[in-house]
Amino acid sequence: MKMIHTVVLALCLVLLTGAGARAAEAPPTAADPQLEARVLAVSAELRCLVCQNQTIADSHAGLAIDLREQVRQMLRRGDSEAQIIEFMTTRYGDFVLYRPPVRPSTWPLWFGPIVLLLAGVAAMLWHLRRRAALGDGAFEDDNENLQ
């Protein structure tokens, strides 16, 4: 019996130490620190299309990694930050911008949450007023159900 415990313990140790060996290493940064800083600056302006509330600089999603690499290649090619932002906006729309401009096509992004909140408050007030207008006779007495 003691032999079985020893074997099980040895297997657990092998499995636990092997798990650390399979951990992924961080990808190397660009050889040029100025290029990497520009990549991060542009990436901080672009929304991750998978996560949607992270920039591609912060996201670990596969698409975000691919977009960061595309930004890096465009910067190496000599494109400006404005050209990269314009390219991404043309390809993915204003939604890719982490801070989209306020214009008629982006009004739902800017004002949609406020409209939904106001509609919810209006619906709640309408329901409460309608219920108050019915009077107490329209509802069952809770005390009758207790007896």
Question: Please, could you describe this protein's structure?
Answer:
The chain has helices spanning 2-21, 33-43, 62-77, 81-92, 107-134, 142-146. The longest helix has 28 residues, at 107-134. Helix 2 (33-43) crosses helix 3. With 147 residues, it is mainly alpha-helical. The chain folds into 2 domains: 30-100, Helicase, Ruva Protein, domain 3; 102-134.
Question: What's the gist of this structure?
Answer:
This protein is an all-alpha fold and 147 residues long.
Offer a few descriptive terms.
flat, about 150 residues, Helicase, Ruva Protein, domain 3, 2 domains
Topology:
Blueprint: H1 2-21, H2 33-43, H3 62-77, H4 81-92, H5 107-134, H6 142-146
Helix pairs in contact: 2-3
Helical percent range? 55-70%
Alpha-carbon Rg, integer? 29 Å
Termini separation comes to 63 Å
Provide the succession of SSEs.
HHHHHH
Report the portion of residues in β strands.
under 5%
Low-confidence stretches: 20-26
Major sheet: none
Shape: flat
Write the CATH architecture name of the largest domain: Orthogonal Bundle
Mean pLDDT across the residues is 81
Question: Which CATH class of the largest domain?
Answer: Mainly Alpha
Number of strands: 0
What's the total helix number? 6
Structural class: mainly alpha
Can you say what the CATH homologous superfamily of the largest domain is?
Answer: Cytochrome C biogenesis protein
- Here the CATH topology of the largest domain equals Helicase, Ruva Protein, domain 3
Structurally, the number of domains stands at 2
